[in-house]
Amino acid sequence: MTDQDSPITRCPRLGCDIAFSYCLKERDPLPCGRILACWENRLPVATLLKGRLSEEEWNKAFQEPLRDRLSTILDLAGKAKKK
After folding, report:
1. Which residues, listed in sequence order, are joined to residue 17 by a DSSP beta bridge?
2. 30 φ/ψ angles, rounded to the nearest 5 degrees
3. pLDDT for 39-58, tens place per residue?
């Protein structure tokens, strides 16, 4: 799935519109920890992720505490600066 053909929703962490494809890889290689809450009413995201993630990856993706918005933005800015 590319960003061009990916559904879009408002991201509560970043405060902007984000493609589903980004949510799938937000914590490369893990999906965003909020992907279930953000997309469950639009896509069968739990079923999709259970087919893609091992049990260990699932637990790591959804049981670890999430970072706040500022930490996420600073991390993304640092990654963009390195490119």
Report:
1. 10
2. -90, 155
3. 999 999 999 999 999 999 99
Q: Report the predicted TM-score, pTM, of the whole model to 2 decimal places.
A: 0.71
The residues, any chain, with a CB within 8 Å of residue 35's CB and separated by 6 or more, are 23, 24, 26, 45, 49
Radius of gyration of the chain (CA): 13
Is residue 1 predicted with pLDDT exceeding 60?
A: no
Residue type, 69: R
Residue 72 Cα to chain centre, angstroms: 11
pLDDT for 43 equals 93
Q: Is the peptide bond before 12 cis (omega within 30 degrees of 0)?
A: no
Token pair 């600066």 in the structure block, residue: 81
